[in-house]
């Protein structure tokens, strides 16, 4: 893909930047074009803009920023859940400790929250204070 980007004027640079930000955050091409102020938003125009180096670079910068925030937020949440779980164990609150453990597992991708396990054969092992409880399941 060759980058034959004509030198854009200031207004066009701003439009491209807005377009790129909306694409990076998940908007469709047509929606991103509309929000950026293009008068005739079409897929062809969107794909043309995506071929420009400045647009690709802006999208990549936004995506790096997004991924950094997501990773930091997940890490912070997992650390907070660790503290909550430890407090729940210290205060002998098993249901809160289990809820914190389940929330951590979901955040870390060990449990798919979109899959219903009701009525399926799953094995669950609960560990309380370093001791394994009775196993439930097949």
Describe the structure.
Strands 1-2 form a two-stranded antiparallel ribbon. The chain is elongated and about 65 Å long. It has 138 residues and is mainly α. The N and C termini lie far apart (56 Å). β1 (127-128) and β2 (131-132) form a beta hairpin. The protein has helices at 10-24, 29-35, 43-50, 53-90, 94-107, and strands at residues 127-128, 131-132. The model has no long low-confidence stretch (mean pLDDT 78). It has a domain at 10-66. The protein is built from five helices and two strands, in the order αααααββ.
Distance between the first and last residues' Cα = 56 Å
Beta-strand percent range: under 5%
User: What is the C-alpha radius of gyration, as a whole number of Å?
Assistant: 24 Å
Output the structural class. mainly alpha
Largest sheet: 2 strands, antiparallel
How are the strands ordered across the major sheet? 1-2
Total number of beta strands: 2
Low-confidence runs (pLDDT<50, min 5 residues)?
none
User: Helix amount, in percent?
Assistant: 55-70%
Topology:
Elements: H1 10-24, H2 29-35, H3 43-50, H4 53-90, H5 94-107, E1 127-128, E2 131-132
Antiparallel strand pairs: 1-2
List keywords for this structure.
mainly alpha, 2 strands, single chain, 138 residues, two-stranded antiparallel ribbon
Short description:
The protein has helices at about 10-25, 30-35, 45-50, 55-90, 95-105; strands spanning about 125-130, 130. It has about 140 residues and is mainly α. A hairpin with a 2-residue loop joins strand 1 (about 125-130) and strand 2 (about 130).
